[in-house]
């Protein structure tokens, strides 16, 4: 659902994955299952209905003998989650509009140039500086979808 899911958008080689569950009632079983694979539940980190999971190491998920997996961020979202809808809408908006994709890429490149490889600082600045852009794109994209109906 992140930048790697948008063709022609420069992205770090880190996947953002939303695991979709039908109902929040199954979350305890999902947490337990993901723990057996080597993920640690980090809570929603302030974003309702988007549970965050951290990998113990690069061999997570533990499904084969010591295989190294591509870096990724794993989230669990209920199917009716507002955050899931936001993730998908933003991804689809960037897929649909070259100008938005290019603007987003430039914002991310500018931030990356300022942080000299520090991923935590990059993530914090990106969250702060991209917020207005993301909100603007989502409003325009949703309006465009509504206009097409």
Instruction: Summarize the main sheet.
Output: 4 strands, mixed
End-to-end Cα distance, whole Å, is: 24 Å
Mean pLDDT across all amino acids: 92
Fraction of residues in β-strands = 5-15%
Strand order of the largest sheet: 1-4-3-2
Q: Would you report the number of β strands?
A: 4
- Note poorly predicted spans: none
What is the string of SSEs from the N terminus onward? EHEEEHHH
DSSP helical segment count: 4
Q: Over the alpha carbons, how many angstroms does the gyration radius reach? A: 17 Å
Label the overall shape: globular
The helix-and-strand class reads alpha+beta
Q: Provide the helix percentage.
A: 40-55%
What does this structure look like?
- By secondary structure, the chain is an alpha+beta fold.
- 49% of the residues lie in helices and 15% in strands.
- It is built from 4 helices and 4 strands.
- The protein has a 4-stranded mixed β-sheet with strand order 1-4-3-2, covered by helices on one side.
- α2 packs across α3 (98-115), α2 (82-96) packs across α4 and α3 (98-115) runs antiparallel to α4 (119-148).
- The mean pLDDT is 92.
């Amino acid at each position: 659902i992140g930048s790697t899911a948008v063709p022609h958008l420069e992205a770090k080689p880190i996947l953002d994955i939303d695991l979709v569950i039908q109902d929040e009632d199954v979350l305890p079983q999902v947490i337990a299952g993901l723990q057996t694979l080597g993920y640690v539940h980090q809570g929603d980190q302030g974003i309702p209905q988007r549970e965050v999971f951290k990998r113990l190491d690069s061999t997570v998920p533990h499904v084969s003998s010591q295989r190294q997996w591509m870096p990724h961020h794993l989230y669990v979202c209920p199917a009716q989650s507002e955050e899931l809808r936001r993730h998908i809408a933003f991804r689809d908006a960037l897929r649909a509009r070259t100008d938005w994709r290019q603007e987003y890429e430039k914002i991310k490149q500018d931030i990356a140039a300022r942080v000299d490889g520090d991923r935590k600082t990059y993530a914090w600045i990106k969250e702060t500086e991209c917020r207005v852009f993301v909100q603007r794109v989502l409003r325009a994209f949703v309006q465009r979808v509504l206009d097409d109906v």
